[in-house]
Design a protein that fits this description.
6 strands, six-stranded mixed β-sheet
Length: 185
Amino acid sequence: MQGFIPGLKTIGKISWLFLLSFPLFGCATTQTEISSKRGEEARNPVDSMVVVSHLAKGNESWAGTFETTLVREMKKTGLRAKVQTVSPGAGESEKARYTAELKAFDPATILVVKLLGGTKNQYGDIMEERFDATLFRNARRKTDRKVLWNARITLKPGGSQMSGSAYGVLARDLVNQLRADQVIR
């Protein structure tokens, strides 16, 4: 007996098939595309690193997610790591503080991560962002710093908009690429 609405059983079957298809299609996941190159100067995995993050120029909250995740993932590898967040419009006193912190930590290497740009849709939602990550051997003078590793990264959010969680994925995948390229353990 179909009840009051003809075809209700058919609609019910279609609804169940629709709901059951979600695990098959899955939700969109954040993707990172990393093109990296290890420099000639990179001989052994490094043991300490300061990451200079220029990501606060975009979204400070997302930059915080990136930095927290990055340090956590790096520490899992046994790397002594610290993040310096470069604030947009940093003055001379702030730059002097960065230099003093760098000298006090005395890392073997410095990883500079910069947001290069991205693409937005017609509604202003960020559809992808591009980054540069360059690892230098630490030296007293900037002119003596050698490039150990460089990567161009494209971050594509899962779903329709960029979010802070996408920056967590960026951090995890960046560390995984450094490990794959045998720059860190």
